[in-house]
Q: What sequence folds into this?
């Protein structure tokens, strides 16, 4: 995969990058990229991977406590550093779900993006209000 190319597994998009942006911190834990909110599944890289998070989003978190960071939190800016060939898997309780095929990943840096959707419009959100004088 070339720099700038991407792969998708469900709501997870990985974009190959040339390196890490400045200010990112390594999280010493299993590389869980996303969690299924209702089903409990994981998008995870089980081996040969490091998760790096935006240092500004974890500012003030000690080196000891950074391992407690939820690396699957959708709003967290994060990168995967793949150290050796491995795969992004979709699993539940460490077993493949069959919902998505595994994606082979070659060594390099990958920006993690989560799919977003606009909330449904509500009556209040679409109501026009006038400013009083």
A:
């Amino acid at each position: 995969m070339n720099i700038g190319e991407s792969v998708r597994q469900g709501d997870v998009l990985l974009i190959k990058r040339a390196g890490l942006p400045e200010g990112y911190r390594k999280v010493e834990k299993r590389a869980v990229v996303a969690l299924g909110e209702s089903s409990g599944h994981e998008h995870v890289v089980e081996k040969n991977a490091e998760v790096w998070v935006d240092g500004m989003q974890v500012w003030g978190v000690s080196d000891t406590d950074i391992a407690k960071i939820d690396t699957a939190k959708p709003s967290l800016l994060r990168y995967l550093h793949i150290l050796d060939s491995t795969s992004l898997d979709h699993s539940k309780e460490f077993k493949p779900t069959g919902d998505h095929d595994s994606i082979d990943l070659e060594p390099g840096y990958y920006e993690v993006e989560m799919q977003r959707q606009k909330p449904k419009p509500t009556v209040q959100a679409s109501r026009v209000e006038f400013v009083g004088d």
User: Anything to note?
Assistant: The chain has one domain: 6-116. Residues 6-116 form one domain.
